[in-house]
Specification:
Layout (H helix, E strand, L loop, with lengths): L1 E8 L3 H10 L3 E4 L2 E4 L2 E12 L3 E12 L1 H19 L1
Antiparallel strand pairs: 1-5, 2-3, 3-4, 4-5
Helix pairs in contact: 1-2
Length: 85
């Protein structure tokens, strides 16, 4: 079992769930999406950038088979980075 943690700014929890579902997962509770050979738990917080700007930062912790996560995490990151643009 492998664990990978990534943080993404400028993306909502709603989009995190949508992207994970598009990658084959199913939401199991408010902060968890399960897929075949993987699970992702996420949380969000507001972070301050400079003196006046705040953004949502979502942290996603992926647990699963190493081979599965080697494909899943980059695929999710690509989707998440486009959302924050």
């Amino acid at each position: 079992m492998t664990r990978v943690e990534r943080s993404f700014r400028g993306i909502s929890e709603r989009l995190v769930v949508r992207y994970l579902e598009n990658l084959g997962g199913e939401r199991t509770d408010d902060e968890t999406v399960d897929g075949d050979g993987w699970q992702a738990q996420f949380s969000a917080e507001q972070v301050t950038i400079g003196p006046t700007l705040t953004l949502t930062e979502v942290t996603v912790v992926f647990d699963g088979d190493e081979a599965v996560l080697e494909e899943l995490v980059p695929a999710f990151a690509q989707k998440a980075m486009r959302a924050g643009g």
